[in-house]
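User: hey, got a sec? need MazG-like family protein folded
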Amino acid sequence: MNKTIFKEISLPRLNNLEPGLESTCLKLMEEAGELAQVIGKFRGLNGEKIEKNSEEIIEMICGELLDVAQVAVSMMFVLEDEYKIDINEKVNAHVNKLIRKGYIKVDNSIV
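Assistant: Yep! Here you go:
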């Protein structure tokens, strides 16, 4: 039996910020770049000597990944607030697309 597993994460709306679509997108790209940079260092792709142990680097990767996730969630708030997008509806449509494309196998008795 194939079981669809969801990883759920709940991140807060950030205070004292008035992000727009463009500024949030730029911040998302910045954070994704920082994540890529840490992974590159972990794999020795930048030519530097690896000075941290694997555990320290994995912690750094987790931190950068959560920064990416936080900015992505912030962009969802922007879409909801400025453009009246129903994010739950969009998430459901996205999951259905993944099912149609075969990335998720679902037991038909559950669907």
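Quick note: The chain has a mean pLDDT of 89. Let me know if you need anything else on MazG-like family protein.
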